[in-house]
C-alpha cells in the first residue's frame, strides 16, 4: 500500500512553494537539495520549522518542497505557509494553533509597480518651477 502524501501550496510576494508531506523521520528536501544547504540563514531555517514546533510534530513528517520566485526570505515564508496548510490537511485540530500564530494567512504584500514617466513607484523626477 502506498503511503499517503499531503500536498499544499504556499505563497509570499512572488515566491511559490509546492509542499509534499509524507510520514517519516523529519527529513526536509528543498529543490532536490538539503534543507540546511538551501536555506543558509538560521532565521530562514527557523521560519520554515515554525509550524512543526507550534504543532509539536517535529521529526514526524518528511517534507519535499519545490520553491521558485522572489528571494530566499520570501521563499522561506512561502514554504512555511505551504507546510502550515499541509499540516492543516493532516489534522484539523491544529487550525487554532496555526491561525493564532498567523501562519495560515497569505502575506499578500507585493512590490508596488513603477509608474509611467517617473523614476520609480513613489520617487519623482526633480521638480523645477522655472
Please tell me the total number of domains.
1
The largest sheet is: 5 strands, mixed
CATH class: Alpha Beta
Estimated helix fraction? 25-40%
Question: What's the overall average pLDDT, rounded?
Answer: 93
Strand order of the largest sheet: 1-2-5-3-4
Structural Rg = 19 Å
Q: H/E element string?
A: EEEEHHEHH
- Helix/strand-derived category reads alpha+beta
* Overall strand count: 5
Low-confidence stretches: none
Plain-language structure description:
The chain is of the alpha+beta class. It has one domain: Ribosomal Protein S5, domain 2, CATH 3.30.230.10. The protein contains four helices and five strands; from the N terminus they run ββββααβαα. The protein has a five-stranded mixed β-sheet with strand order 1-2-5-3-4. β1 and β2 form a beta hairpin. α2 runs parallel beside α3. It is elongated and about 75 Å long.
Amino acid at each position: 500500500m502506498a503511503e499517503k502524501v499531503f500536498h499544499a501550496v504556499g505563497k509570499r510576494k512572488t515566491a511559490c512553494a509546492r509542499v509534499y508531506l509524507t510520514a517519516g523521520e523529519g527529513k526536509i528536501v528543498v529543490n532536490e537539495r538539503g534543507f540546511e544547504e538551501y536555506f543558509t540563514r538560521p532565521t530562514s531555517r527557523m521560519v520554515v520549522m515554525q509550524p512543526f514546533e507550534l504543532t509539536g510534530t517535529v521529526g514526524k513528517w518528511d517534507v519535499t518542497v519545490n520553491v521558485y520566485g522572489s528571494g530566499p526570505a520570501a521563499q522561506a515564508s512561502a514554504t512555511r505557509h505551504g507546510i502550515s496548510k499541509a499540516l492543516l490537511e493532516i489534522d484539523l485540530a491544529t487550525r487554532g494553533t496555526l491561525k493564532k500564530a498567523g501562519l495560515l494567512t497569505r502575506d499578500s504584500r507585493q512590490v508596488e509597480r513603477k509608474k509611467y514617466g517617473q523614476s520609480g513607484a513613489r520617487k519623482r523626477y526633480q521638480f523645477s518651477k522655472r
